[in-house]
UniProtKB/TrEMBL annotation:
It catalyses: N,N-dimethyl-1,4-phenylenediamine + anthranilate + 2 NAD(+) = 2-(4-dimethylaminophenyl)diazenylbenzoate + 2 NADH + 2 H(+); 2 a quinone + NADH + H(+) = 2 a 1,4-benzosemiquinone + NAD(+). The gene is azoR. Homodimer. Belongs to the azoreductase type 1 family. This is FMN dependent NADH:quinone oxidoreductase. Residues 1-194 form the Flavodoxin-like fold domain. The lineage of its organism: Bacteria, Pseudomonadati, Bacteroidota, Cytophagia, Cytophagales.
Amino acid sequence: MQILQIISSARGAESYSTQLSQGIIDKLLVAHPGSSVVIRNLAQTPFPHLEEAHLQAYFTPAESRSAEQQQAVHHSDEAIAEILAADVLVIGVPFYNFSVTSSLKSWLDHLTRAGITFRYTPTGPEGLITGKKVYLAVASGGIYSTGPMQPYDFATPYLRHMLGFLGMTDVVVARAEGLKIPEFQATALQKGLDSVTV
Ligand SMILES: Cc1cc2nc3c(=O)[nH]c(=O)nc-3n(C[C@H](O)[C@H](O)[C@H](O)COP(=O)(O)O)c2cc1C
């Protein structure tokens, strides 16, 4: 089995979303010995915001692209190839300002390509990245799985929708939450990890 780990926290080994991701990957490696892990670190090597060259490249046939357009499309092509090669994705999701980091958003923007990762049909859009299992390892200062802040979790509904739009509907959410609440901080990571069975 091939596991693709997406890191989007800039906090290195201190990052709770990365530690939770690692814990999930350790469980996967026990359940599926011999699996390999590919790491895409979006904090170390960010994907650029979509600029004019990217958009032009997407809508120009590969054989007609200029050198600049060929260069512009390589992030997208690489990200798509990595996902297609993977069986399982483990995505680290630091909760920033009620949503995802801009690095994760940018990666998703480069993945979303009409005719390649989704297409429009007479009955609606169809995702073309199928057969993947996705684990979201979400780290947040507050509590969003329940309670008064639940409606303000714009990260997991967005990710579920976006991944589903691309064809990835088998999504498990694990949360290390309450990390800024002294009463919950010490147990948050383990609780998130214990919630996941692989
Ligand atoms: C810029 C920034 C914005 C944040 N916004 C929120 C927020 O809206 N809600 C929340 O509960 N925690 C928020 N936090 C706390 C983070 O979710 C928390 O520190 C989490 O551990 C970050 O993930 P990481 O440890 O993987 O980097 C924010 C932290 C930063 C640095």
